[in-house]
Specification:
- There is one protein chain.
- This protein has 229 residues and is α+β, with helices and mostly antiparallel strands.
- The protein is built from ten helices and five strands; from the N terminus they run αββαααβββαααααα.
- Strands 2-1-5-4-3 form a five-stranded antiparallel beta sheet, sandwiched between helices.
- α1 packs antiparallel against α7 and α6 crosses α8.
- The longest helix has 15 residues.
- It is globular and about 45 Å long.
- The chain starts with 8 loop residues before the first helix and ends in a 12-residue tail after the last helix.
Length: 229
């Protein structure tokens, strides 16, 4: 089944402005249902793996066939864990059908039915293999002057994402900016919400990852609470 995003065109445009206009390989959505073990990919995730949208029906076996050999055992164990109800987020490498290696960050959380029963998982693939120079230039030219007073909070939030997902400072900033733009919430507010989770989880790495996954995936639901005072 080909996953059809319910995001509005305006939301898609905001994502493109952050991640590169016309670049469809940077971020995409997915869903996975436990009962059928079926996966749904957005067009962007299909392209990350080297397929045209709708060309293949994603399966667990197909996903694993694209994992880098050095990451395969870890990812197979993680998929088994999520189908048992465990958390599922990871930074790893995939190999597309043309042999290109891509570094990706998967951010996800449980998906529940109308009765609150967890029936699967859903979230985003973020392609981390793009050149970081354009994002550093964009940050210097556009973002940092507007959020100068928030630089400490943003640096702390970047550090939290770097620690949790094992990504670089540039990549962490890109993730924060992406969620800020897509949810239409100021970058400072996103950073505040990320930082607010840190004291609650202490040194528990699994809980920290789970809480930050939830924060990143549910910013629009918290827009009212995050509105400017």
């Amino acid at each position: 089944m080909n996953y059809r995003s319910d995001a509005s065109q305006a939301e898609k445009d905001r994502v493109e402005r952050v991640l590169g206009v016309g670049d469809a390989l940077v971020v995409g959505r997915f869903k996975h249902r436990f009962d059928s073990r079926g996966w749904e990919w957005s067009a962007e995730v299909a392209r990350m793996h080297g397929y045209a949208p709708g060309e293949v029906e994603p399966t667990t076996e197909l996903l694993l066939s694209h994992k880098h050999p050095d990451d395969l055992d870890r990812m197979a164990a993680m998929i088994d864990s999520v189908e048992d109800g465990g958390p599922f987020s990871s930074r790893h490498r995939i190999i597309d059908v043309g042999g290109t290696v891509r570094e990706v960050l998967v951010v996800s959380e449980p998906m529940s039915d109308e009765h609150g029963v967890v029936v699967g998982t859903q979230g985003y693939y973020i392609d981390l293999s793009q050149t970081a120079a354009q994002y550093r230039r964009e940050a210097l030219d556009e973002t940092l002057p507007r959020v100068l007073d928030a630089r400490v909070l943003i640096e702390q939030a970047k550090g939290a994402l770097m620690l949790t997902y094992g990504i670089s400072a540039d990549q962490a900033f890109r993730v924060l900016r992406w969620r800020s733009q897509e949810a239409n919430i100021k970058l400072r507010r996103v950073a505040e919400l990320v930082i607010a989770e840190l004291p609650a989880v202490g040194g528990d790495e699994i809980r920290l990852r789970s809480r930050l996954d939830h924060v990143l995936l549910n910013l629009r639901a918290n827009r009212t609470a995050l509105a400017d005072t």
